[in-house]
Amino acid sequence: MIAEQIEKLMASIPRVSDEESDKWNWKHDLRPRVTATKLPKRFCRPLEWGGTPQFFVFEQCKSILTGTGAIVVLVGPRGVGKTTIAAQLIIERACDASLTPAARQPPYRKMSDVVALFKPLYSDYGSRNTEKLIQRREDYARFPLLVIDEIHECEEQKSKDRVMIDILDRRYAARNDTLLITNQTPREFEDDTDESIISRMREHGRIIECNWESFRVRPLEPALPF
After folding, report:
1. CA 55 to CA 96: how far, in whole Å?
2. pTM higher than 0.90 for the full model?
């Protein structure tokens, strides 16, 4: 009798298609995780992009960013999809329920914002918020993946070098991976970057040049709506 009642109850529940289930999960679980990383809204969507050069670089990044303290740098002109590649790495981790909560929300930051935040720690005049900034710096070191974009656009080179070296050294020691993005050429990046960072990359990491046609000419198709 009870079994029959349960069967009738189950039969009365509307069936949900896989597509509807995916959309619900994206809207109520995955999208909030992705937006919490501070990734710009226009990048917060999974893409149908198999076979594109962006996808192959995405796969390269996945094979390197495996918890060794690797530093991967995407270099190349605007519009080729460097930030999109980083966004899809963030989205894939947000979708992976086997990861820890911190690993499912890799922070996305711009270099100028990182320097502005931590510069007082390295200045002569110090800061009233030193203890809080030190804790924030420790937090930056703990995330399994950190994405820093537009590293070429910070005008305060001295502050940028000190902040980058410190954060990347701490992340390297903790065996946490970092993805950097710049519009520079490989040579410009190496000339503009402290040798200690370059040496870390030679051990665990890579400079990947993105030099194909701008994908803004042929936009990639979203797999799900925002």
Report:
1. 18
2. no
